[in-house]
């Protein structure tokens, strides 16, 4: 059963990677599927307080983005209109059940750095000026899931730093 669920996650992340790079949006059903499968897979180890802290972490980040651009432009800026897609936010919420809070913060920060590096590498080949954040983060999670299948530790929930 675990391999079926992991396969569903692999396929979902792969489709999100493709959609986000090609169309710069993802289908809303994919993050919902990831969220449901992730909760089911980790139902024995999920800590509600970790999930709430991760949600608060995302909220603080998005409030900070809105505040930064509002101060910069001297009027309120909705970050979802110009700076970040709603699909990216839905994706970041959907993957919360995959991680402990500590590992989620590590994933978030290192994933943002990886996304910027990948964007810098592929920027000249692409005519669009937006970053396919959910797609790059999907690729990152796939990269994390592969070694996790062969390790005796759960790199998503066990302390890795």
UniProtKB/TrEMBL annotation:
Keywords for this protein: Membrane, Transmembrane, Transmembrane helix
Membrane-crossing residue ranges in chain numbering: 6-21, 28-49, 55-71, 83-99, 105-122, 134-157
tRNA-binding among keywords: no
Protein origin, superkingdom: Bacteria
Protein name, as recorded: Prepilin type IV endopeptidase peptidase domain-containing protein
Species whose genome carries this gene: Aquimarina atlantica
